[in-house]
Amino acid sequence: MEARSAKKETIVKLSNVLNVLMKIGEVTAVLAIVGGIVAVIVAPSIDFGAVTLKTIWGDSVNVNSVAEFRLRVCGEMLSLAVIAAIMFVASYIFKDMTTQHTPFAQKNADRLKIISLLLIGFTIVVQPLKAFLIMVFVPGVNEFTFHINLAHFVFAAVFFCLALIFEYGVILQQESDETL
Q1: Which listed residue, 59, 102, 107, 134, has the most CB atoms within 10 A of its CB?
Q2: What pTM, to 2 d.p., does this model score?
Q3: pLDDT tens digit string along 48-92?
Q4: Do residues 48 and 65 make contact, with C-beta atoms less than 8 angstroms apart?
């Protein structure tokens, strides 16, 4: 009994730490978005002779005009917004675990499904949208190319499976509560 109580206490503490880490990630993403907005505003004062932009994924992109710079930065800000949304939703899962001491609540299963949908939306909407906008608004770019990362679909499937496991855990939790 004491071992189980100690284990629960450890889980609650770790959930609290993860909640704080998610909040730090959210704030970092929002600050990066604000930095992107500032960069877009001051872009006309930048000499675009040979500017290389680092994406949030670590890729290097050569930027040749103010318009291209603005579009690429806005695209990265959109990506950061999706990441911040995922962290926001995940933080509430951990927050609820610290207060309710169980992850098996229907709202947590729903939150995992939201994370799954955000990952899929990021892959099939955000990435092509960024590529399309660059093709349309950047002079000299005449092809519509983008990369779909299969890992995003895998992570989305994993989060969806976790949501189903959580839903099953909710049923077991209810049965256990009714038995007592």
Answers
A1: 134
A2: 0.82
A3: 666 777 776 677 777 777 777 888 888 888 889 999 999 999 999
A4: yes
For every residue of the chain, DSSP letters joined together read -HHHHHHHHHHHHHHHHHHHHHHHHHHHHHHHHHHHHHHHHHGGGS--SSEEEEPTTS-EEEE-SHHHHHHHHHHHHHHHHHHHHHHHHHHHHHHHHHHHS-S--HHHHHHHHHHHHHHHHIIIIIHHHHHHHHHHHSTT---------HHHHHHHHHHHHHHHHHHHHHHHHHHHHHH-
CA–CA dist 74, 86 (Å, integer):
19
